[in-house]
């Protein structure tokens, strides 16, 4: 049994789009984590300055 070329292309394209969405989601999560680390660093510096 063979898969018609157009259906294969649709599935392949859908797979690529899903992978791209997941990469974007992970990149957003990474940026968020980076921002949180930065905010914690700044907060720590401010606390040390007050001490």
Question: Which helices and strands, and how do they pair?
Answer:
Elements (H helix, E strand, L loop, with lengths): L4 H46 L1
Written description of the protein model:
With 51 residues, the protein is an all-alpha fold. It has a domain at 26-50. The chain is 90% helix and 0% strand. It has one helix at 5-50.
How many beta-strand segments? 0
> Which value, in Å, is the CA radius of gyration?
22 Å
Beta content comes to: under 5%
Oligomer classification: single chain
- Written as H for each helix and E for each strand, in order along the chain, the element string is H
Distance, first to last CA: 73 Å
The share of residues in helices is over 70%
- Segments where pLDDT lies below 50 for 5+ residues? none
Number of helices: 1
Shape: rod-shaped
Whole-number average pLDDT? 80
Q: How is the main sheet built?
A: none
Give the helix/strand class. Answer: mainly alpha
Keywords:
51 residues, mainly alpha, 1 helix, 0% strand, rod-shaped
Write a brief structural summary.
With 51 residues, the protein is mainly alpha-helical. The protein is built from one helix and no strands. The chain has one helix at 5-50.
């Amino acid at each position: 049994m063979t898969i018609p070329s157009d259906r294969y292309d649709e599935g392949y394209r859908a797979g690529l789009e899903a992978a791209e969405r997941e990469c974007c989601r992970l990149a957003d999560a990474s940026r968020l984590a980076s921002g949180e680390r930065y905010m914690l660093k700044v907060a720590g510096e401010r606390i040390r300055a007050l001490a």
